[in-house]
Specification:
Order of helices and strands: HHHHHHH
Distance between the termini: 8 Å
Helix content: 55-70%
Radius of gyration: 18 Å
Number of helices: 7
Structural class: mainly alpha
Shape: globular
Strand content: under 5%
Number of strands: 0
Length: about 200
């Protein structure tokens, strides 16, 4: 996005790593888990590309329109009900939908910016934060706090012994790794919205 170049590259690395991990999660698990991992991989790589510092790459307007179309289609894909959906997955699907719509919103804001997206972020402060940006900031800040608390160890759980073998099929399906991936993408989304 449009902060210092070092912060931009760190954001690119974080999002690309999260997207890569989500690609690894596509290898196993139930169909719903693979579908979720695919959406998260798309978000991770899309956010990584969007976070490339402006000094390195200033894409033309049509690129931002293409982003909006891709993530709009992904949002529609999230809305399509799949067979065998479990009730507890509704909250997670809602989070995916909101993330995809946030990407559409950011891409639309960049496409609508006069002179390209990379020249407008400094001018937002004069008129204040737009309502949609503020609502998304509040949501993702709350999500990051909630997801962070889910990674805290629970009293009474026994950690695996060091050197204990991990089943090959379940290596990337562990809930805490998926939660850490979602937390990192939530942090990245929060950082990107702050620069919008």
């Amino acid at each position: 996005m449009h902060g210092p170049a070092t912060a931009g590259w760190l954001l690119v690395a974080l999002c690309a790593a999260a997207g890569g991990f989500c690609l690894l999660r596509l290898r196993g698990g139930a169909p719903e888990q693979r579908r979720s991992a695919g959406g998260e991989a798309l978000m991770g790589f899309g956010m990584a590309a969007m976070a490339v510092p402006a000094a390195v790459l200033t894409p033309p307007r049509w690129v931002w329109v293409a982003y909006a179309v891709v993530f709009g289609a992904a949002a529609l894909h999230v809305l399509v009900p799949a067979r065998g959906r479990y009730p507890h997955e509704h909250r997670h699907r809602s989070h995916h939908l909101l993330g995809m719509l946030a990407m559409v919103y950011m891409a639309g804001a960049m496409a609508a910016a006069p002179g390209g997206a990379h020249s407008t972020h400094a001018g937002v402060g004069a008129s204040g934060t737009p309502l949609v940006t503020g609502v998304l900031l509040v949501y993702f800040a709350g999500y990051v706090l909630w997801a962070g608390t889910r990674l805290l160890p629970v009293a009474g759980t026994v950690p695996a012994a060091p050197g204990a073998p991990v089943a090959a099929a379940g290596r990337y399906d562990r809930a805490e790794l998926a939660s850490a991936c979602r937390l990192s993408m939530g942090l990245a989304m929060l950082a990107m919205l702050l620069t919008l």
